[in-house]
Amino acid sequence: MTFKDQMDRQMDRMMLRDSYGRPIRDLRISITDRCNFRCFYCMPAEAMEWQPKSEILSYEEILALSELFVSLGVDKLRVTGGEPMLRRDLESLIERLARLPGLCDLALTTNAHFLRNRAKALKDAGLRRITVSLDSLDPERFALLTGRNELAQVLDGIDAAIEAGLKPVKVNSVVIRGVNDDQAVAFAAYARERGVSVRFIEFMPLDNGKVWRREMVVPGEELRARINDVYALERVKQDNPSETARRWRFADGAPGEVGFINPVTQPFCGHCSRIRLTADGMIRTCLFSTVEHNIKKLLRQGADRERIVEFIRATVDKKEERHHINDPEFVQPLRTMSCIGG
Question: For a tag site, which of 25, 47, 256, 288 has the least CB within 10 Å?
Answer without folding.
Answer: 47
